[in-house]
Amino acid sequence: MDLKIKEMTPDLLDNFLYYFDEIGFADNPDWSVCYCQFYHFPGTIKEWEKRSKEENRNASIDLICSGKMSGFIAYQDDDPVGWCNANLRENYEKIPYEDDSPDSQGKKIAGIVCFLIAHTHRRQNVARQLLQYIILNFKDKGYDIIEAYPRKGKLSDAHSYRGPITLYESEGFTLYKEFPNFNVMRKILH
């Protein structure tokens, strides 16, 4: 499948909103309130569960316009078919683990927290193409490390939103830390 991938910028905001409003959660409407806000939200899980779709949509608009929320949109022809929330790790309010290790100190680290692939385009290498593009993009921007947090176990498509471990392994990521429910996978860029 021939895709065009673009880095999220404020001028692509309408595409992002259209994707999240109409496509991304067409098969999983219970999660449609997210707008990829979870890792950017500073509050508790209980506070998160009370948030409305409109609150998260507006928060994403603000973060995209301010440059604090980044990511990549995959297009087939002119239609968005995939999204990946990949950003400077410091721009996330929460990642799944605390990292105070010496090998991270002074490094420019990107985090990948979410893939959202249109249900019509899953298992067609959209996530792989996004990841390959992200690796090159972050390398060109001088990042030292990219890390991701894939969940363990047999998961539904919805619950695989952090990407499968095998995807990261196939693109040269290695296990950095292991936790009961997820791994931290890293790729050294510089």
Query: What's the name of the CATH homologous superfamily?
Result: Gcn5-related N-acetyltransferase (GNAT)
CATH topology: Aminopeptidase
> How large, in whole angstroms, is the Cα Rg?
16 Å
Low-confidence stretches: none
> What is the total domain count?
1
Helix content class: 25-40%
What would CATH call the class? Alpha Beta
What are the key terms here?
alpha+beta; Aminopeptidase; 5 helices; globular
Q: What does this 3D model show about the protein?
A:
The protein is of the alpha+beta class and 190 residues long. The protein has helices spanning 13-23, 45-49, 53-66, 126-140, 165-170, and strands spanning 4-7, 72-76, 79-88, 109-117, 145-148, 174-178, 183-188. The longest helix has 15 residues, at 126-140.
Task: Please specify the SSE layout and strand pairing.
Elements: E1 4-7, H1 13-23, H2 45-49, H3 53-66, E2 72-76, E3 79-88, E4 109-117, H4 126-140, E5 145-148, H5 165-170, E6 174-178, E7 183-188
Parallel strand pairs: 4-5
Antiparallel strand pairs: 1-2, 2-3, 3-4, 5-7, 6-7
